[in-house]
Amino acid sequence: MLDPEEITGSFTHCGPSCDYLLLITAVPMIAAGVIALLKQPYRKTASTLAIGALSFSLLLSIIAFTGVVLDWTHGIVTRIVFNFTWFRIGASNVDLGWVLDPLSAVMLVMVCFVGLLIFVYSTGYMKEDENYTRFFCFMSLFAGAMLGVVIANSTLLLFMCWELVGLTSYLLIGFWYQKPEAAAAAKKAFLTTRIGDVLFLLGIVWLFAQTGTLLFYNNGAGSIEAVALAGLLNQHAAWGLTAAGAIGLLIFAGAAGKSGQFPLHVWLPDAMEGPTPVSALIHAATMVAAGVYLIARVYPLMQAGATQGGTTAALTVVTWVGAFTAVFAALIAVAQNDIKRTLAYSTVSQLGYMMAGLGMGGVAVGMFHLITHAFFKALLFLGAGSVIHGCHGEQDVRRMGGLKSDMPLTFLTYGIGMLALCGFPIIFSGFWSKDGIMEAAEHWSVTKAPFYMLIIGALLTAFYMTRQLAYIYYGHWRGGKPAHESPAVMTVPLVILAFFTMALGLIGTPAWPWFRAFLDGRSTNFELHRVIEPGLFVLMIVSTSVVVAGLILGWRIYGDRSPKATEPDALEKTMPRAWSWLRDRLYVDELYGKTVIAFYQWWARVADWLDRRVFGGAVTGVARSFGLWARLNRFLDANVVDGSFDKGCDELAVGGGLLARVQTGRVQTYLRILALAVLALAAILIWSSRA
Amino acid sequence: MTPLAGYLLIAALIFSIGLAGALTRRNAILVLIGIELMLNAANLNLIAFWRYGPHPELLTGMIFAIFSIAVAAAEAAVGLGLVIHIHRHAHTTDLDQMNRMKG
Predict the structure, then answer these.
(1) Which of A313, A332, A345, A611 is the most exposed place for a label (fewest CB within 10 A)?
(2) DSSP reduced 3-state for A564
(3) From A672, which residue of chain B is nearest by alpha-carbon distance?
(4) Mean pLDDT for chain A?
């Protein structure tokens, strides 16, 4: 299958090879396979294998990343690809391949690192679970598939890993499948993302049909390189879109499904039925970011044919959907009482920020927020897991309170994560990444509406996070059994993530925009004065004041009150109508229930009726007519066929009896008959010759 | 009367004697002798037709007769062997009593 000549013939440029990248994704997958064969009691082996495999991937990722960074410091923009032909159908090649460039290198390190911390954390969190080995099998498979999405240089490989990621997400949301809600949530996640994935697949097939190649980058012959894009721009699809724009939109539909963008966001909050480490790894840090990463990966396609203002139809759609989702989900998050559900809506909202960042500011802006968000959202989720663990499985924030003193380490790290999520200035990475998006939004050529939407989103974010923090950590304890701090295996990853949550800000400040320059392939240096440039400085003041306003507002309403669970929420008292709308998630689920699901059920009933009456009737009719035919045959058989056959047999028996008499056993009788026969023969011959 | 007709007449006579013997005798050995007589009558015919036929120089009839004699000898050996065996078994050579293989 792997023809060596084809492999060696397709390096993009001669540099270090990147064939070892496959190991990054293969090793966790192999580990998953081995764990799948382990029996339940081999718990230690399972977790060790999973952690070991991911550590190995992390090591390779760091090696790859270092190589790319070194190239970059020498002024080379790395893009090494490793392509090969999997098989051929007719005249077209089905190619697979992987790529190492700044984008994939950054993402690889992030996924491996966050994943590894969460794996370690899981050994503590899942300690009591009897299906510990199954858990690590799925987690390892997920890690492998996710890393496959990251390195893929072929739409086919990307789509395969994409679907594997979806599958593991389904398996892990439904990990506690005994709970009906978990099973339903898993199904919902799978079906909702499937809608996006079908459109995504259409986009891929269209792209393949137009460009004739599955590869993204292939020495200038790839599907998102200049030649192919020029061809795509000449094709016109419907509604004034070019083929590039239409394909971009279809791919964005897939990304929206995976990244929980409105209107396909409904599965993500429900996905919190899974174990908390799963929520942290898959539904906060990595998998949901895959959609954002996908857009970043096909960015040349999204950007193809950009007009003067630097935007295209596809990017405009991405921006609007992102900005709308950011506000929409933040609004809902305000009124959620489940600790993980608030975080889930917050994730949806932040993914909206990333999309908006991609749409308005380019790859680096969106990706920087993706990376910082992965760290602080993983931190928040793991913190939430620690809280749930400490509160003996309680998830309702109204039944917590005062955990500040019971769980000091969790509180500290959670606070850091929360401030980073809100975008609190200077030392938190979230501030810098969100500021990048804000700046891009302010300079967007089309309209400033997304900028204001994002500002409102930031205000809401600060508000609901303060509300949650006040509920959980301040006031007095309102639960049953007193809470306790989690073991070190859970808190140490929290501390590490908290450290990176703060440290990551250093590489993305306007003074030293290392990350941005790295992804864009430019060089950069440290210049403090860029921070205090008037435009940027004003923007920073604005966003800071918005965040602070949100924090103060939240604290004024919720701080130190410790309301009871039965008591209506502080906001509910002032505006009950709006509150119930928000609490019920703006009725999107109900809307889907009334429209899509109702239609589907109606259609199912129609199909059922058709099946029973029309097709069932036809089948029964055929069966009946065959029954009649069989009965007729039986009658004919018994009376006509059998009768004649029996008669024939009787005749044969009589004839046999007659002939048997000739066989006397006397040799001389035979001889006599023979002699007579010869005489008769002779007589016939003589007589006939005479005639 | 041509010489051929004479030979044929003699052969017919021998054949008839043999056939009569085979049909009338009860002793199996005598029946065998009758059969041998008939065979030899046939052999005589073969030689006569060859000798007075269109190509007496080709030796065809002679070869045919020698083959026939060889086959007859083999047949006689087998027949006698059977008769001896039956005699040992049933202490008789009467053909009318040898009817155990009747169908």
Answers:
(1) A611
(2) coil
(3) B23
(4) 85
